[in-house]
Amino acid sequence: MVALVVVNIGIPVVFLTVRLVLHASDPKSYGPAGGYNIYTGLTAGVMYVFGFIVAATLGCTAGSIDLTEGMFRHLVVTGRSRLSLYLARIPAGLAIVVPLVAIGFTVVCAVCVFAAPTSINYDGARVPAHLSLTGFETWAGNNPDPVLCDLPYDQPTPVNVPCGPGGPTVNGPGPTGVPVQSSPSAIKALAVQVAQQDYPGYKTLFLYPSDSLMIETGLWIELEATIGFIVGLGLASLMGQRTVPVILLIVLEIILTPILSRAHLPHLANLQRSVVGLATAHLAPGGLPVLGGGGGGPGGGQGSPALLPESTTVAVCVILAWLVGWTILGAWRMAKRDA
């Protein structure tokens, strides 16, 4: 219970509180506490991974505590079906896990939305958010200094653009071959060209997550925690203890899943796709960094080329197989265990 509260609520609250205090005390040195980048880091980097681990720890405890405490025989002599005794632990555990994950996620969403920055940092340039292509070009023409000095541009320029303390100066060859400063109209025209090229990248940047992304992410994190609890419950019931199952699930989540999700082994591809972590990564909302970088999303991991391709149907079947399979194994072991 302590681990669940600390990871799902404590870590996000402490991290965001520190950022709020630092930004309030020195806004020039410390950025806003919220925003899209903070949201993706906390949800995909902390709540997704460690939420699975602590939920699995609770599941391992629920699946083995009666044995280790010597209470299993007392439950059996009540005459209650052993299958009912096992299945009753699933809603009981989820009644603990799901609300705690929801509370922590709500805190993250609230801070990331209401304490989001007011402008986008695009390669060092501060750009207003939600501009159309025309608006982005207009802004670039009115602000050539950050556009020409900070924004990426991979096309050959007819003029030289040195950047310094005084900003960019666009130079071209004069009549005698000596560089001279170009007119403001040339500078503005070049800034508009840079804006036209960079607009597709600018559109992918957000001040804060959208409502649809927050809903999808919340359901995705809850799914990962549910998987962790049910798998931990079945594994601990099968092995009759808690420590080894917890260690095995930590190794699965932290070590094996990232490796198997990105290692392309032709003869073992189907075996890799049977890993539940890869399946949940493919169900991640688009744009979230998953398993060490890159976005998730259906359709074979469109946002992460390094992720092993897998269809949404296969991912769903793998998750269902893990949930049903470990439930059957755990219930079978409890039914056959000596009291």
Number of strands: 4
As a percent range, the share of helical residues equals 55-70%
Provide the domain count.
2
The largest beta-sheet arranges its strands as 1-2
User: Which runs of at least 5 residues are low in confidence (pLDDT < 50)?
Assistant: 169-180, 292-303
Strand content: under 5%
Largest sheet: 2 strands, antiparallel
The best one-word shape is elongated
Kindly describe this structure:
The protein is mainly α and 339 residues long. It folds into two domains: 2-118 and 207-336, no CATH class; 144-203, no CATH class. 65% of the residues lie in helices and 4% in strands. The strands form two sheets. Strands 1-2 form a two-stranded antiparallel sheet. The protein has a two-stranded antiparallel sheet with strand order 3-4. A hairpin with a 5-residue loop joins β3 (171-173) and β4 (179-181). The longest helix is centred in the first third of the chain and has 33 residues, at 36-68. The chain starts with a helix and ends with a helix.
Topology diagram in text:
Blueprint: H1 2-25, H2 36-68, H3 72-76, H4 82-87, H5 89-114, E1 120-122, E2 125-127, H6 133-142, H7 144-150, E3 171-173, E4 179-181, H8 184-203, H9 211-239, H10 243-262, H11 269-273, H12 276-282, H13 298-301, H14 312-336
Antiparallel strand pairs: 1-2, 3-4
Helix pairs in contact: 1-2, 1-5, 2-5, 2-9, 2-10, 5-9, 6-8, 7-8, 9-10, 9-14, 12-14
